[in-house]
Amino acid sequence: MRTAKRRAILSKRKHPGDKAKTAKAAPAKVEASEVTTDDGEFQFVQMTDRDVAELGDWSAQEGWNPGLGDLGVARASDPEAFVAIRRGDALIGGGSIIRYDDKFGFMGLFILRPDMRGRGLGGKFWRWRRDRLKARLDADATIGMDGVYEMTPFYERGGFVAAGRHLRMQGVAQGRADSDVVSDKERLIDDILAFDAGRFPAPRETFLRNWLDRPGLHVAGLYRGDKFVGYGVARPCRDGFKIAPLFATDVVTADRLLGDLMARITGEQVQIDVPETNLTALALASKYGLEEVFGCVRMYHGAAPQIFTENVYAVTSLEFG
């Protein structure tokens, strides 16, 4: 399904994952007081809980299909992760700038109210978000983001470098239960945290514990003897489910995990976001009847992280990394 025509169509669609990255010497935290535009009309500020909920609704309206509770997980992991454009009491735009540690952060969910677009306000806000996140990281830190294809030149002017694409694959869930798969989160959590460390750019224990602790979520883990060899998560979204993440040492393990998770949500719409560079992962998605419906460019400001990309069969989130 990845024809030139489809790519041209997909490149015009918008997505929640526009993220930035880099770092700059500064304290780990900055004050929530922010910036007023030169004309005094708009303020760039920290989001309230109500703002975050509204941003989630906007992302659903954009067709990004957020997971139920995704934004709450990010906010609980980093209380300063969401920032807004306000005009008085009205929310005009927003986005996320989650900080995982001193060395890595991620930008996403960049949305401007449709009637406020085309005025240059979004560009100012995007640069302010980038710089605000940089101020919370070390000088040599990295910031990641997933951006729509047509916005790549803008992000490049902002200091980001493309590192590959993530393709959203979608279909109807069908699979087969695997009796060897472990679904007990309490039994799995320590092994998940250890395994995740080499497949994500930064430690994220708080984030992962929150990510896994949600109603309706399914977790699958596999062992080969005493060795933990992979895990996957199926989480409910506004529409259907997303498999995210899916990390495994090899395709056989990934196949077993994916098949088991699919069996638990049979008949539901399912989406997974696959690194285009992992051809084995794309082939696995195709095996389950999933087809490409969307894509983003993964970009980094600063050094690209060194992770086991061949073990990444589905990323965790286009919004949070």
Core attributes:
321 residues; alpha+beta; Aminopeptidase; 13-stranded mixed β-sheet; 9 helices; 13 strands; 28% helix; disordered N terminus
Describe the model.
This protein has 321 residues and is of the alpha+beta class. The protein folds into two domains: 16-164, Aminopeptidase (3-Layer(aba) Sandwich), CATH 3.40.630; 168-314, Aminopeptidase (3-Layer(aba) Sandwich). Helix content is 28%, strand content 30%. The chain has nine helices and 13 strands. Strands 1, 2, 3, 4, 5, 6, 7, 8, 9, 10, 11, 12 and 13 form a 13-stranded mixed β-sheet that branches. Strand 5 (104-112), helix 4 (121-134) and strand 6 (142-147) form a beta-alpha-beta unit. Helix 3 (70-77) runs antiparallel to helix 7 (205-212). The protein is globular, with a radius of gyration of 19 Å.
